């Protein structure tokens, strides 16, 4: 029946026998695969389809701690090491010999010129037409230049900057009428400045009144008593007026070079450096140091912040200060602690 049907289809559709046989083979192959799959399901054979493997289990995410130690074992550091300038070290240790070296070189050059002139058989009188004479004149000028350079090096030496001992008397005066918090803050400021910086004298003036004078003060010539601060005269001086108008810190790195040092008679006579720190627009703090250029850049910045802190503290009690000071001037024996 199947062959009859194929003949009918071939006669109807016009398909040749080879193509019909090929279609039969394909349909037979599909039927066999279907029967194989059905039998596998009936007998319980698992399906062997290829699936991607499951991802591996993820490790727990624990925090990692790295312990850093400043103690290194010997030979563990492999980075670059700071170099050492041996020439600079040798020159610093033999300063006198290095300064005298040009004199020795120049003197030896002069002797060599005379010796060469003596054994060369040339007349001792310089002859401009002789090349040897011209060479001797040139070397003679270089030798004299070396000798003069050595003399200059020996005469000019850099001045060593060392701290000096302030010439005066110790003084610590703070108005006892101030609140305890203000007094403790002034003490804190003085202890910090005297410990960390080269400050040896501290004067605080606020609202034309001297609030504190701590450290070494100049002594009078008559009775060796400390010189007190004339706050009204001080605030009218050019130094304080300039600082208050600008609102910026003024640093006198070498006080002996400034003519305005006469406005600070209460500081020791050998004060080396001074910082004038404004306290807002109503006061000023004066710090005297024992070393030329002794206050570093970081010291100046820190003193500026400290001045702002003192200004904020003193401003809280500024309304009571004039009355307190008047009482202090009326009874000098009870104005200081």
UniProtKB/TrEMBL annotation:
Any Gene Ontology CC annotation: chloroplast
Keyword Ligase appears in the UniProt entry: yes
A biological process from GO: cytochrome b6f complex assembly
Species assigned in the record: Hibiscus syriacus
InterPro entries in the cross-refs: CCB2/CCB4, CCB4
The keyword Cytoplasm is assigned to this record: no
GO molecular function, one term: ligase activity
Protein name: Ubiquitin-protein ligase
Alphabetical UniProt keywords: Ligase
